[in-house]
Specification:
Layout lengths: L2 E5 L13 E10 L2 E4 L4 E10 L7 E6 L15 E6 L42
Antiparallel strand pairs: 1-5, 2-3, 2-4, 2-6, 4-5
Amino acid sequence: MPSATLTFSAPINASCQVGDTAYYVTTQSSGGFTTNSGSVVEIGSIREIQSPNTNSPSIIVETSVGYNDLGGASGLSDKFILFSKDNKANLSSPLGYYASVKMVNDNTSAAAELFSVATEMFASSK
């Protein structure tokens, strides 16, 4: 698959990693603000990140987006680049917990009846 190298003029986000999906949206100036002027377009999967903490990092993306769509000779100056995480690799929920309970009747000569047993669980890290 073809690839594209995207070079930036500032450090990239620390959570951007290989396997994430890169996107772009075209921007325009309006009333002193930069706004989007189109829909979000998928560039492709990030294959490599070079010099992420410098002022000229670059990412190599596997893409099917054409050269002219990515900015051609003028570059990405009018594009806002963003990325999303792969849900399969970045889920943070636990798989489960295991508990063992032993219930004992201390008065072995008399019968005992168990009315109810309950448990509670909540996610503490969300």
